[in-house]
Amino acid sequence: MPAAVVVLLVVLLCLSMQGSEPALAKTKAFIIPEVLAQLEKEVTRLDEQAESEPGPNFPRPSAQVAYHLLAGFAARGLVVNGLPEADAIFFQVDQRGGTTSRLLSIAPGARIAMISTWMQDKAGSYDLKTAILYLLRDGKWLPKGKGSIATVDQD
Predict the structure, then answer these.
(1) 3-state DSSP assignment of residue 127
(2) pLDDT tens sequence across 27-46
(3) What is the pTM of this model?
(4) How many CB atoms lie within 10 A of CB 92?
(5) What is the mean pLDDT of the chain?
(6) Which residues of 74-89 are buried (b: 16+ CB within 10 A; e: fewer)?
(7) Quick one: which of 108, 135, 115, 103 has its CA closest to 39?
């Protein structure tokens, strides 16, 4: 059933954007409110599910699904530039050693932070990629869910 929800989200996203590219660029509203509400619900569910999933996989499978879902929406977003330092720290897109990040606006009151951190620990070296959904509620930005994947260069 969850796979059907993801497919539904992708179809709704495509339909909401079909033939309206100039309007999207003008309003910067890439997804309609109904799709945004479904995205919030699904990412929150996946985030909660990942916390209780058993097994050795890191990140957990549900966290990986949430990352790919958020990355797909972020791909259509507009980069938010010129953030004050306090906002960059809040959204976790401040520039730190070993980390690259960007914040994307996907709709009015909706942003996704894409963060990539190079990690080296006892498991080896890998790139931990995280996507975090933030929504504006009552004048405050709130994190609503996240997803992560770990990638290894295979040179």
Answers:
(1) strand
(2) 454 789 999 999 999 999 99
(3) 0.78
(4) 18
(5) 82
(6) beebeebeeeeeeebe
(7) 135
CB 116 within 8 A of CB 100: yes
Residue 48 to residues 52, 101, 108, 144: CA-CA distances in angstroms? 7, 24, 25, 11
Relative to beta strand 99-107, strand 78-79 is antiparallel
Residue 107's DSSP bridge partners are: 110
For residue 50, give the nearest of 142, 149, 121 by alpha carbon: 149
- Give the type of residue at 78: L
- Tell me which amino acid residue 39 is: L
Beta-bridge partners for 111 = 105, 134
Q: Which residues pair with 137 in a beta bridge?
A: 140
Output b/e per residue, 29-54; b: 16+ Cβ within 10 A. bbbeeebbebbeebbeebbebbeeee
Q: What is the pLDDT of residues 104-116, one digit of tens each?
A: 999 999 999 999 9
Is the distance from CB of 148 to CB of 129 less than 8 angstroms?
A: yes
3 token code pair: 């796979």
